[in-house]
Amino acid sequence: MSATSASILSRPVHPLHAILLAFPLPLFLGALLADLAYWKTFQMQWANFASWLIAGALLIGGFALLWALIGLFRVGAGRRRNAALYFVVLLAMWGLGLVNALVHAKDAFAIMPEALVLSAVVTLLALVAAWMGYSGFSSRGAIR
Fold this sequence. Notes:
It comes from Sabulicella glaciei. By secondary structure, the protein is mostly helical.
């Protein structure tokens, strides 16, 4: 008979935060793909679709950002640097996403190429934020 030891698994983020964090990446990625489709076809509906996807990503991403801000104040001093870096990445994602939404609010023919570049940068930031959040980089359970 072998002895077994109980291991305690730590959660990187709270499950509700994980759900909120799951939305910005696919929505911003969808907006990037819609911008690519608009760039190739110049069908204005693709620009409209990208605008709606960005609005959804900003709405849900804002709640994830708020959760990260609250978690930043709840974390201990030793883990504050990681939580602050995670918050800054989410803040940059949300801020550039807002700029991207304002760019998409212009006439459809006037949004290229800056809408495409902003969508790519925001999608990359959403990927980095999701990676940090799900890997536990955000302070190993401090944002529970």
